UniProtKB/TrEMBL annotation:
<protein>
    <submittedName>
        <fullName>Carbon-nitrogen family hydrolase</fullName>
    </submittedName>
</protein>
<dbReference type="Pfam" id="PF00795">
    <property type="entry name" value="CN_hydrolase"/>
</dbReference>
<keyword id="KW-0378">Hydrolase</keyword>
<dbReference type="InterPro" id="IPR036526">
    <property type="entry name" value="C-N_Hydrolase_sf"/>
</dbReference>
<dbReference type="InterPro" id="IPR003010">
    <property type="entry name" value="C-N_Hydrolase"/>
</dbReference>
<comment type="similarity">
    <text>Belongs to the carbon-nitrogen hydrolase superfamily. NIT1/NIT2 family.</text>
</comment>
<feature type="domain" description="CN hydrolase">
    <location>
        <begin position="8"/>
        <end position="246"/>
    </location>
</feature>
<dbReference type="GO" id="GO:0016787">
    <property type="term" value="F:hydrolase activity"/>
</dbReference>
<dbReference type="InterPro" id="IPR001110">
    <property type="entry name" value="UPF0012_CS"/>
</dbReference>
Length: 267
């Protein structure tokens, strides 16, 4: 498909999430979605954090997860269509055949599903592997004709994954997350590295607020293919806007042609 737009305005919904309370979280998200589109500058793409429906209520996740993601898909698709905006729908806990997954649904401006990706690396430090099943497919899709990829939180610690998406053409990598203190340094460094090594845009959206003793620091970021930060949040609930200039990807890839210089037969 031809690349339609050279510039995409992105809105990051850096929201708080109430653990174990999907109703509260749906209302909060709905309010923020409306705030994002009534801004004078209307975004082309909206991004939401990880597990925004339930938070990490893992001990009650079977009861709380969205059955086949039906409610979430309807909600996001309707909003995308009504407001003619692309949505990378964070991720939610969804239930399929009695298994729980951590899944991103992405919708285009017509409300059509562009991508469905379930987190493939489960984070043991938060016991994800005890409650969740991992996905077994990559998150590739086209956003307005632009090849893109999606991964979730802990996935960014696996450079092979973003490299594979880049080799398959991805120019933008979306990363919904629930990444907590005390690892802000890891978060920033890993996102930066993924952008620089793959010469792609990295668009991350992390939650804020606390659940029990865990506090989440936000710092959602858009990083360009040269590793420069276009926008970065602080630790407060907020909507951040930043622009992606798609021509930057080709410019950086021409300046330092790493994809031509790779020696994959040696590694
Ligand atoms: O890798 C990390 O430090 C955080 C990962 C995480 O919180 C998650 O995947 O949910």
């Amino acid at each position: 498909m031809a690349q339609d737009k050279q510039t995409l305005l992105v809105a990051l919904l850096q929201m708080d999430i109430t653990i174990g309370e999907p109703e509260v979280n749906f209302l909060r998200l709905e309010k923020m979605l409306h705030e994002a589109v009534i801004e004078e500058v209307r975004p082309d793409v909206i991004v939401i954090p990880e597990m925004w429906n339930t938070g990490y209520a893992l001990d009650r996740i079977h009861e709380l997860a969205d059955d086949d993601g039906v409610r979430t898909k309807q909600f996001l698709s309707d909003f995308a269509k009504e407001h003619k905006v692309n949505i990378i729908g964070g991720s939610i806990a969804d239930k399929r055949e009695e298994r729980i997954y951590n899944t991103i649904y992405a919708f285009d401006r017509q409300g059509q599903c562009m991508a469905e990706y379930s987190k493939i690396h489960l984070f043991r430090l938060m016991d994800e592997e005890k409650y969740l099943h991992s996905g077994d497919a990559l998150g590739r899709f086209e956003l307005e004709g632009v090849p893109a990829g999606a991964m979730i939180c802990y996935d960014i610690r696996f450079p092979e994954l973003s490299r594979k998406l880049a080799l398959e053409g991805a120019q933008i990598l979306f990363v919904p997350a629930e990444w907590p203190h005390p690892r802000l340094h890891h978060w920033r460094t890993l996102l930066m590295a993924r952008a620089i090594e793959n010469q792609m845009y990295v668009v991350s959206c992390n939650r804020v607020g606390t659940s029990g003793t865990t506090s989440f620091f936000g710092h959602s970021m858009i990083i360009n293919p040269w590793g420069e930060v276009i926008v970065e949040g602080d630790e407060t609930e907020s909507i951040l806007f930043g622009e992606i200039e798609l021509t930057e990807v080709e410019k950086v890839r021409k300046t330092i042609p790493i994809f031509e210089d790779r020696r994959p037969h040696l590694y």
